[in-house]
Amino acid sequence: MQITKTTTVSGAAAPPRLLPNGSGFVRLKQHVPIARGGRRLVYAHPYIDQLVLKVPRPEARYENHAGLPFWRRHFRRFKHYNDSVREAVEHVAAYAATERLPPFMQRFYGFLETDMGLASVSKAERGRDGNYAPNLRQLVQAGKFDTEARAAFAEFCEALMASNVVVGDLRMENLVYSYDAQNDKMKFVIIDGAGDKNGIKLCSLSNLYNRLSKQKRIHALERQLAIALGDPL
Ligand SMILES: Nc1ncnc2c1ncn2[C@@H]1O[C@H](COP(=O)(O)OP(=O)(O)OP(=O)(O)O)[C@@H](O)[C@H]1O
Ligand SMILES: [Mg+2]
Cα(154) to centroid of ligand 2, in Å? Predict the structure, then answer.
């Protein structure tokens, strides 16, 4: 961690600066992303190993969606930052429910200005080996969806159902298999797709609707997983 502490002439310690250049503005263009999603590029934070930064893909930046239905037009305000806004709101809602975040949610630390636009700042999820955690599809493709992963997946589904967290996009690419050092075990973490995607926020408004919606999404995810594993459906 490169946060620097400077000393003033009088000897009193100055507050730590956010970044070594002191500007709080991060340059990402010169770096290679660690991963690419459909809409965002994921970069390692250039100074802080424990963080990743997500910015909109340049080609996925906002176009004028003139044909959108009226209930979707509200989200035009956030343009290509819509996913990050939804993520931030769900983070607060999950925290408000129990005054702590469920272990299966990606830690979100706010926003940072970069030369690729506004980045959302999240905890870098890593495996036991210290490398970035693979997503569920990568894990299956590497032939590493073993008994431990199967148990972690079952635990994830159970914990998601037991929480009031809303998910709008539960896909194999949106879950990573990460090492939980505190409890010395592997777990699945939702790194994208949390939050209500409905124009009218039915999942947020009704617990019952939210439970039914999550059940449906978990079944769809299990089907995706079975196909990826080549298991009979
Ligand atoms: N916090 C994280 N730690 C480690 N790897 C991550 C993290 N967040 C994302 N990734 C990796 O980056 C990939 C893309 O991230 P993410 O799903 O957030 O992008 P996206 O563009 O919003 O996705 P989508 O295609 O669903 O729109 C993930 O599949 C995962 O492999
Ligand atoms: Mg994604």
Answer: 21
| pLDDT per residue as tens, the chain (233 positions) | 444 444 444 545 555 455 666 667 899 999 999 999 999 999 999 999 999 999 999 987 766 555 667 666 665 788 889 889 999 999 999 999 999 999 999 999 999 999 999 999 999 999 999 999 999 999 999 999 999 999 999 999 999 999 999 999 999 999 999 999 999 999 999 999 998 887 778 888 889 999 999 999 999 999 999 999 999 87
In a domain, 43, yes or no: yes
Around ligand 1, the residues with Cβ closer than 6 Å are 35, 37-40, 42, 52, 54, 83, 106, 122-125, 132-133, 135, 169, 173-174, 176, 191-192
Query: Domain range holding 92?
Result: 25-229
Buried/exposed 174-195: b ≥16 CB within 10 Å, e otherwise? bbbbbbeeeeeebbbbbbbbbb
The total domain count for the chain is 1
**Which H or E run includes 202?**
helix 202-205
- Assess if residue 127 is contained within a domain: yes
Predicted TM-score (pTM) of the model is 0.88
Gap between the Cα atoms of 36 and 44, Å rounded: 12
